[in-house]
Amino acid sequence: MNRSVLISGCSGGGKSTLLAELGRRGHAVVEEPGRRIVRQELESDGAALPWIDMAAFARRAIEMAIADHAAARGRPGWTFFDRGLIDAAAALQHLTGEPVLDRLSALHRYNSSVFLTPPWPEIYVTDPERRHGFDEAVAEYGRLAAIYPALGYDVVTLPKIAVADRADFILDSLVAQ
Fold first, then answer.
1. What is the pLDDT of residues 159-170, one digit of tens each?
2. Where is the NadR/Ttd14 AAA domain (predicted)?
3. 124 pLDDT more than 60
4. Of 12, 69, 136, 150, which one has the greatest count of Cβ atoms within 10 A?
5. How many CA atoms lie within 13 A of 153 on its CB side?
6. pTM of the model
7. What are the b/e assignments for 1-29, b being 16+ CB within 10 Å?
8. Are 115 and 7 in contact (CB under 8 A)?
């Protein structure tokens, strides 16, 4: 069984908070590549930022996600990813038309269940690493909600409930597989 689990969906939908909860419970978690890249680029005055050079940003996210996925192989227990390769490849393909998604997703598979955080305007906020608006986040969610099933994943939309209950929901869903 593939124990690498993607949590994707709408920006600002509670993914990072959920991953922190899963980490507190002793599960391995992998922070979103995009946030790590933004921090690195801001610290070094780099340009691979989504608001400066989205294609360069997406390419870096793909590289980082592949490395993250490889590092999780063989790890005991579940590893939860805050976004990952498919999100990054989908962004690059949407932006440039480069047909990277099918090839990369076939080479680097995750657990068959992908958990999506739906748009949740009541908790959405921008910050120095997330500068896009809610409408852009909703559009991205729509693309991802269509892409994952097309790639053969079972999409599970997370309910808008307290973070501990969301973590329980995911863990219960995985045990039922």
1. 999 999 999 999
2. 5-166
3. no
4. 12
5. 27
6. 0.89
7. eebbbbbbbbbbbbbbebbebbeeeebbb
8. yes
